[in-house]
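Field reference: sequence -> structure
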Amino acid sequence: MIGRISRRAMLIIVAMLVFATPAMASLVVHNFMEADITSADACFVKVAGDDFASYTGAGANDPLSSFSDDETTDLIQINGADLLEEKITVRGMRGDRVMYTDVVRYQNNCDISLDVRLVTDAATATGDWTDRSARIYLSALPVAIGTDPAGLGRPGVTGDGWDITPIVVEADTGAIPSGNQSTGTVTLAPGQELRGAFVISAGVNSSNGAVGTINWVAEASNGN
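Structure field:
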């Protein structure tokens, strides 16, 4: 009798465990953490290059290029926060191709090396690109901040110190080909800078005063 009762009891216990399994599988663990979110000055920065001071023959107040990093007006909102977006104005000349080799400088003031590339997240630029195209280059010769890079030639010429893959905006459509939505990656040591170049081809049918706009990100990572 004792053996039969024990076996029956065992079967009842096993059955209870079987039916209890789905409920027991719903396991919730609360593991508590806390994060304090602070801010600090940026150590990877963008500053105006020497081409900022170039002028056309139209007049002393007619700059070929300009650079703005006004923290009160040059802002975009991402995830509800106002982030600084430096703004560059680059002018082409109708019927000509214009090369700017020092419009913006990308500087590493951090204490670690950074892998830098330029990236656009759009397949098409906005505005008027009628008979006008653009190439945005990143130099491949890091130099000490404030130093003129020796051997830096013309953008688009292989071996002249520029990354071989520019961001490209095609004429008329403003399309950005999939293979040209980012530059290559250049490693930038602490205390060094890279230069950003533009090549603007403005055809005879491009409109004076019309604006074509391209947005991109200077992406810097430490490789981790």
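Note: The chain has one domain: 44-221.
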